[in-house]
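dumping this here so i dont lose it
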């Protein structure tokens, strides 16, 4: 059964074709939680994890890099009126 993904650029479903046979590399953003965590914070994180697991079960060698944003310093900077982006 082929994997079909929704392409937001073309606005349609497309069959997944790896650049290198049997291998898949993916980069995803994890949750960015500013307050008490809720399911909305984790929806993209969960979907990426499910996709990775499905690809592995389907025989792909998956390299998955996840970004998890540390917002502690951002909140502290905002309290002092500083710019939220570290330079």
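and the seq i came up w/
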């Amino acid at each position: 059964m082929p994997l079909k993904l929704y392409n937001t650029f073309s606005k349609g479903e497309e069959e997944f074709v790896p650049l290198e046979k049997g291998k898949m590399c993916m980069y995803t953003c994890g949750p960015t939680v500013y307050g008490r965590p809720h399911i909305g914070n984790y929806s993209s994180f969960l979907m990426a994890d499910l996709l990775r697991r499905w690809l592995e079960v389907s025989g792909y060698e998956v390299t998955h890099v996840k970004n998890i944003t540390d917002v502690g310093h951002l909140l502290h900077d905002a309290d002092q009126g500083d710019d939220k982006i570290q330079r």
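Residues 35 and 66 are 20 Å apart (CA to CA).
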